[in-house]
TrEMBL record:
Protein name (record): L-carnitine dehydrogenase
GO BP annotations listed: carnitine metabolic process; fatty acid metabolic process
Pathway membership, UniProt: Amine and polyamine metabolism; carnitine metabolism
GO cellular component, one term: cytoplasm
Binding site for NAD(+): G11, G12, G13, V14, I15, G16
Quaternary organization: Homodimer.
Lineage of origin: Bacteria, Pseudomonadati, Pseudomonadota, Alphaproteobacteria, Hyphomicrobiales
Main enzyme class: oxidoreductase
EC number, UniProt record: 1.1.1.108
Pfam family, one: 3HCDH_N
Organism of provenance: Rhizobium lusitanum
Role this protein plays: Catalyzes the NAD(+)-dependent oxidation of L-carnitine to 3-dehydrocarnitine.
Length: 496
């Protein structure tokens, strides 16, 4: 892989700041020129957020952070840099001026990328002495997290420059897409502009509010677009007959007044065939059903991660899912016979979700704790320790855990957990959970936990009230008659 050794950023605003963070966190030294009196504070704040985000994003060892230097002049900033990124305001005259200055001061072999959102590279390179090294490198905000860069060459950009630019993006965690022909606003902003124009009409005509409009996006196709684009999503929506059927069914609607953008493309046979063929290639041999399954796994992962958003409160569709789950728990999952306390209680029935599977192709270890934690929560609800109870200030906290991995759980496998109460008193609750493969009944893992009843506000263990103990005692008494489970009381490293 070809690496950037030293970067220069001209302009350190929203986008320049994002580029600076992206380079620094990839271990690349960055020199910055921005005449704004508070440029260093602004960049520092963006960098701070970027570092927080990376700490959550990956546990992989990041290289030592690159060195950040603010320079007094543009010339000093670009000296010695092999990638120079221009991110000054979107004005052609200003950008031309800045790019000409960069051109005069940069190393002859330096790559010069412009962050412009829509200006043509041919127009930008007009006054440069070495226009062949200028290209558009259009990123998306926030640059340190969103990986895409549209690489667009102008009439005078060399093919070697485009290739060199594309090669240098993967080592900083980015994906370059080469846009074959230059066009104002390239691809991404063309799509966003079209959506935005339509959205502005919908607000002006009082069809919906901005909140409704945003909800329409984020609770539906926004989720789909995060993992498959427009065309692959529509291929699936064509059912078994795929893209060609989709075009035949919905193509005619393009002629109807469904948008204000009524310069409608002629969806003739040639275009249908072109899209059909490209869509076949994109599918790369995957059937519609396989694509559906991949889409569904991705959506599950996205929805589950949104459930943990906003500091665990859930965000958007994730908050909706969280609330829905809580209502299901509160309703007790429909009609249920009271648990048979004469045996370990069957409390959780689930399937191994795609987000739970690791690089070994089976359920990863922290998900076992999640299912066992859910099992403890289910037991607590059974004895009256539910959301209302916790809101009133008391709960049970787990203070010790021992998990044993006995078998494997694969993607989509049906699993269920059971709970045996080993002992309990006013404060303590000692439980033994088993995780079973539902089809065979085999035990895949066991977990032994000690929980303490707490006053959450005071932060100390206190006796559980009678309303809880009265529900717990019959279970504990019945389970006292069960044989001690194999593995209970074991510690790590014990001889069998
Ligand atoms: N904001 C966005 O969502 C996106 C913007 N872009 C593009 O990035 C470029 C920059 O936009 P923003 O960062 O949003 O603007 P911004 O206004 O946040 O930042 C521009 C920065 O350039 C500095 N500046 C002005 N004149 C300068 C000069 N002669 N030399 C060096 N620095 C100078 C300003 O002090 C400011 O800090 C534009 O071309 C824009 O189209 C691209 C993708 C997304
Ligand atoms: C609004 N904008 C045209 C500057 C947006 C972009 O260029 C890309 C983005 O991040 O949405």
């Amino acid at each position: 892989m070809t690496k950037i050794n030293k970067a220069a950023c001209i302009g350190g605003g929203v986008i320049g700041g994002g580029w600076i963070a992206r380079f620094l966190l990839a271990g690349i030294d960055v020199d910055v020129y921005d005449p704004h009196p508070e440029a260093s504070r602004i960049v520092g704040e963006v960098l701070d957020n970027a570092e927080k985000a990376y700490a959550m994003l990956t546990g992989a060892p990041l290289p030592p952070r690159g060195k950040l230097t603010f320079r007094e002049t543009l010339e000093a900033a670009v000296a010695g840099a092999d990638w120079i990124q221009e991110s000054v305001p979107e004005r052609l005259d200003l950008k031309r001026n800045v790019l000409t200055q960069i051109d005069a001061a940069a190393r002859p072999d330096a790559l010069i990328g412009s962050s412009t959102s829509g200006l043509l590279p041919t127009d930008l390179q007009r006054d440069m002495r070495h226009p062949e090294r200028l290209f558009v490198a259009h990123p998306y905000n926030p640059v340190y997290l969103l990986p895409l860069v549209e690489i667009v060459g102008g009439e005078k950009t060399s093919a070697a420059t485009i290739q060199a630019a594309m090669d240098r993006l993967p080592p900083i965690g980015m994906k370059g897409v080469h846009i074959a022909k230059e066009i104002e606003a390239f691809v991404g902003d063309r799509l966003l502009e079209a959506l935005w124009r339509e959205a502005l009409w919908l607000i002006k005509d009082d069809i919906c509010t901005v909140e409704t409009l945003d909800d329409v996006i984020r609770y539906s196709f926004g989720l789909r677009w995060a993992q498959m684009g427009l065309f692959q999503t529509y291929r699936i929506a064509g059912g078994e007959a795929g893209m060609r059927h989709f075009l035949a069914q919905f193509g005619p609607a393009l002629q109807w007044n469904w948008t204000k953008l009524m310069d409608v493309v002629d969806l003739d046979d040639a275009l249908v065939e072109k899209i059909g063929q490209q869509s076949d290639e994109q599918a790369n041999g995957l059937s519609i059903r396989e694509l559906e399954r991949i889409r569904d796994e991705n959506l599950v992962g996205i929805l589950q991660s949104l459930k943990g958003g906003h500091g665990g409160k859930g965000w958007g569709a994730g908050k909706l899912l969280k609330d829905f789950e809580q209502s299901l728990w509160a309703a007790g999952g429909g009609e249920k016979t009271p648990p048979d306390v004469a045996r370990p209680l069957r409390l959780i029935d689930t399937k191994v979700s795609p987000a739970w599977v690791d690089y070994n192709g089976h359920m990863t270890e922290h998900r076992y704790l999640q299912v066992f934690g859910d099992t403890s929560d289910a037991l607590l609800r059974l004895i009256g320790v539910d959301f209302d109870y916790v809101e009133r200030g008391h709960s049970y906290y787990t203070v010790e855990t021992h998990i044993r991995h006995i078998g494997e759980a694969k993607l989509g496998q049906a699993i269920h957990s059971t709970c045996q109460v080993l002992a309990s008193d006013e404060k303590r609750l000692h439980v033994f959970h088993r995780l079973h493969d539902t089809a065979s009944g085999d035990v895949i893992a066991t977990a032994e936990h000690m929980l303490l009843h707490v006053d959450a506000k005071a932060g100390k263990a206190v006796a559980a009230p009678e309303e809880v103990l009265v529900r717990l005692r019959p279970i504990a008494a019945a389970h006292a008659a069960l044989p001690m489970p194999e593995g209970a009381g074991r510690h790590v490293g014990q001889k069998r």
